[in-house]
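Anyone? Bumping this.
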Amino acid sequence: MQPTLEPGDRVLVRRLGRKTAPCLGSVVVTWHPQRSKLRLIKRLSRLDSRGLWLLGDNPGESTDSRQLGAVPTNLLIGEVVGRLPRGKSEQSR
Amino acid sequence: MLRSALSALACALPAPVAEAHCDGPCGVYDPASARVAAEAVLSMTKKLKAMEAPASGDAAAMAAYNNTFGRYVAIKEEEAQKTKKELLILWTDYFKPDHLATFPDLHDTFWKAAKLCSACKVNIDQAKAEELMAAVEKIHGMFWQSKGRSDAWVTAS
């Protein structure tokens, strides 16, 4: 998700219920559609009947809906509302 | 002061990890999926070549023939496209620039293999289908060599 997020960044996530749709263009956290214990953080580019279409901000390096397809909406965990300031130790991680 | 204390506290709290690059953790790559599709292309090509048109005047036999022929062509088309897709995933997602040092012909190999997928769609050409299998076998070799393994090339048919 560079340049928006760096490895080790801490973000605040607002959990979303089934009835609340995340905003298009926001960064969201979801469960991985094929790996049950892996959380993904990606930007929401589209929302349709098939689910969430997620794209990384760093397309050259990202594995996202281009490979994974739509992520079912029930796998959505929440929407990122902010990033904590980077401490010196965080930056070096 | 308060702000930095709060952020230090927030950073010290445990938090689950979310991956932006699931390439590593979820990267299950295997040229076997391309091989299975390429084998299907070769198989359908052989079946199409072996088909014999029924005698003229037998409408029912002609309809059955046309139907089977159409199905075989559709499957050949679909599997060739699948082979291409699987190869492109290996090419663009699995292989990284540093692999070029070991395999200087990496791009050329994939490019030619992808073109063979198209040739197998355009024609009913067993030689092209066999060339495609050989190209997938070469990629299989490169892939496993890049992982420091030497998995045997085994086909289903």
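Late reply, but here is one note on the structure posted above: The first strand of chain A starts at residue 11 and ends at 15.
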